[in-house]
Amino acid sequence: xxxxxxxxxxxxxxxxxxxxxxxxxxxxxxxxxxxxxxxxxxxxxxxxxxxxxxxxxxxxxxxxxxxxxxxxxxxxxxxxxxxxxxxxxxxxxxxxxxxxxxxxxxxxxxxxxxxxxxxxxxxxxxxxxxxxxxxxxxxxxxxxxxxxxxxxxxxxxxxxxxxxxxxxxxxxxxxxxxxxxxxxxxxxxxxxxxxxxxxxxxxxxxxxxxxxxxxxxxxxxxx
Length: 223
What we know:
There is one protein chain. Helices cover 48% and strands 12% of the residues. It is built from 10 helices and 5 strands, in the order βαβαβαβαβαααααα. Helix 3 links the parallel strand 3 and strand 4.
C-alpha cells in the first residue's frame, strides 16, 4: 500500500530535498506540494493525501492553523499531519500538537528518520520523539502545572495500571519499552493505551502525553 504524502514548506529547496528522499522509497509517493497553509488546505481537499509534512512558519496561513483545519474536530478528511520544526520554534510545536498534529520531527533529522516517521504516522500511530519531547517540556516547565492543582475528574476513570502506562507514554516511551518497564507483553500495553485514549477522549499518544503534563500527572524533570 502506497503512502500518499503532501509536502508543505515555503522554501522550494527544502521541498525538493524532501521529495528526493521520499520518492526513493517504494511505499511512499509525493502527490503534491504547497508553499503556505492556505494552499495546503486546497491540496489536501484535491489530492486526499495520507500524510501532510507540515512546516510551521509560512505566509498567508501558518502550519498551526492549517493543521487545525486538517486534523482538528472539523477536519475534511483522514490526512495525518507530521510537523517539521527547529528548536527555535518549540512554542509553535506545542500549539500544533494541540491543533491535532500526529507528531513532530526536526528539519535536520536523518533521511531514514523522516521516512520512518511518515510510515509511523500513516499507520495511525504518533511520532513522539523522546529527546524533542523532553526539550519542549523543559522549556515550558514554568508554564506547566506544578502537580498541586486538583486532578481532573476524567483521570479518576483510569485504573492504577492505566495511570502508570500514561506516565510512561508521557515520557516518550514506546510500547516495547513500556512492556519491558512493567514486565508485561506489548499486546497488554497496547490494550492499556487504547483504554487510556478512549476513557480520556484523546486521539493518540501525543495528545495523551500533552494531557499528562497539562493535568499535572507528570511534571518536567520527574522520572
